[in-house]
# Entry
Amino acid sequence: MTRADAAVTLSAISRVYGRGNAAVRAVDNVTLEFARGAWTAVMGPSGSGKSTLLHCAAGLERVDSGRVLLGDTDLTAARDRELTALRRTRIGFVFQSFNLIGSMTAAQNVALPLRLAGHRPSAGLVRDTLAAVGLADRAKHRPRELSGGQQQRVAIARAMITKPDVLFADEPTGALDSSAAAVVLDLLRTMASGGQSIVMVSHDPVAASRADAVVFLRDGRVVDRVAGADALEIAGRLASLA
Amino acid sequence: MIALFAGSLLSVTLGVALVQSSLLLLITAATLDPPAGLGAAERMEFSDNVTAAVAMLGVILGIATFLAGFIISSTFAFTVAQRRRDFALLRLVGAGRGQVRMRLLREAVVLGGLGAAIGVPAGLVVMAAQAALMRRMGFVPAGFAGEWRPWILAVSFGTGIALSLAGAMVAAHRAARVLPLEALRETGAAARVMTATRWIAGLIFLGGALALIIVAPVGGPGGGAAMAMNVPMPAAIAAAALSPLIVPLLGRLLPTGSGVIGALARANLWDARRRSASVAAPLIVLVGLVVGTAAAGASFTDAGIGELQRQTRADLVVTATGPVGPAIAAVPGVASASTELSVPATVDVGDESFSVSALVVDPAAYARAHSVELAGLRGHAVAAGPGGEVPAKGSVRLALPDLDLGAVPVVASVPATISGGANLLLPPGLVPDRLLAAAPAQSFVTLAPGASAGTVRAALARIGTVATAGDWLRADATARSEVNNKIMVSVMGIGALYALIGVVNSIVIGAAARRREFAAARVGGLTRSQVLRAALVESSAVTVAGILLGGLAAAGALIAAARTTSAVTGTTTVTMPWTLIGAVCAVALLVTGTTSLITSWSATRPAPILLLAARE
# Structure
């Protein structure tokens, strides 16, 4: 894979928490490329460092050593102002706990990133974006009036309205029941097939089986990878790590 | 969210109301015209009283502004801390630091404007209450009422917005530095509570308080008392700023019980240092200000009483009207009598003109009766009296009601005392008899050896009201203490109420964010009543910590008072107003306890599982 094919490139990154004897290498010298236009799942047992890896890749957390590239942009050298601009334009986030703003309607939540960037998104664009996640009729609802699955789809719409280079998803189905999770996974699959780069952390083999490739982490290192595997095989490999 | 907004709004509204009311009363008093038909002497007395009322209202305005600034900024800081996760979320979806800061400052302007809009009418209610209090205490004439001025609208809106903006400034700066990652941590990273700002503010104000304590004894009776009374403000700010260090430590020491409830309360105290500090802050100011000022005031009053008792040498005191000196001296059995006639006067020193109280005395008799030296006071000359304020040498321009005496040399002085008294002593013959005919006269009478007190009293009773020196001193002491208490109530009363509301405000804001925490505790096996008891123990522990820290601030004032009374009178005087201290502690515990029970009761009403399941 050449540099141009990689949505995100991690070169020898490490992230250490604590000092001295108490130091924990949450991410230990990981070199990894996430392919452009593909959906990559990162899996591993609890404490394997998969969330930290995602945070570092998305520029939310500083790495202690190594380099993180978003396309050709070096995130390790970026200042807060540049990272903020990147979050508005080239990076989208979806999280387990939805993280919508409770006082705003679905439409307002979706429009928020563009408004923060100083644009006034048209009502049509917001409506279309919500329609793309199947929530055209929920625009005026506040998060507490929506089911978990619906809230997560609003969060996906919010992430997608900026047409980001990469969508980072941290356990996007972790708080959902299986039918709501299936809807969200279908949505992500459609987006990835349309050329959207997605990096997803999950410990659910069913979710990971929808991705194009799966990377396995243990103790902060990449220990295995697989492409096109089904949920059963993924579950087997995951079990062998624990 | 609504509780946060309402809490901030309430703090601004009441702050604006209090400042506006104090300012309007001050302006009304300062522009008060004496009623028509008063004589020259009465006009001087009237303007004297107005000067005193204006000075007191100036202090009230100062305290109101201090409290408003303190409570608004601490409420804002707390609400911003509670919304940390929201700000992190905004940062996560692309908000820049400047945007977060601007958003908070915009909110502050809206809150300030809205607070002023409600605060202006509320201020009229507060003004009616404050004026009624001052009338009742006798510091203003019976018909006194604050007057509305149209320009106060601009001032109140300006005050509201300026105080909110100032209060939000530090908080906004902090919020802008929230990391986006904090939105992802389930419990929210316990943000550092002891920030650099807190350290710097705490140490600067601690230094200020220490400086006042050190300098107070050098300030003489007037200046020293003023400095001692001002110690509680910087001391309370310092204690409040440093409270996140101390409150949890005190919480550990407090006997909160050994069971699971005590353990939970202790853990909460440690974990929620920010919340504990926010509840404690207005309490510290309340206790520090009320107890500190009252204790210092009582100490100075008692020092004055003691000083007067030590210095007064007399057997009987006669209160009469006019130049009764010769008549008293003529009574058989009277060895000597210092008859002192009180006349109002105006003094010009440099460019400054102020009204003073002057006593026409017999210098030799006065010196004997009050244990002072007063040589050389005769003819066209004056002496600086125990009330101070007049220079002890040089000359002053002296005007009596309807008589300008021109420049008069100051030829002698007696030491200024804590109990105060006349600013000027005048020799006989300087003031024409027509001005003395109606002057209040006080005579300190010493009996000749062997004279019968009863007989002399009976003879003196024909001249005026007679009391033994002991009775007179006791009555004087009671009157002084009463005046001191009245001043304290007038100056502190409504401000204390505001600070108490600030405490309640913090508890309500804090409880609003605790529904999930309470729910988690209940799912973990605690009954609802156990959760309520833990919350009560926790709030009581914070209250006790706040009272102790406020007591520390108050102790600063008391130390300054002790050092000053010792320097001025030679006797260290410390008076603890135990009744007031007890009342303040009881009210604080009762109010925080009740509020915390009510808020946690209402926060635990829904079934816990509903709260834990609902995520936004």
In short: The helical segments of chain A are 50-57, 80-89, 106-116, 123-132, 148-160, 178-193, 205-209, 231-241.
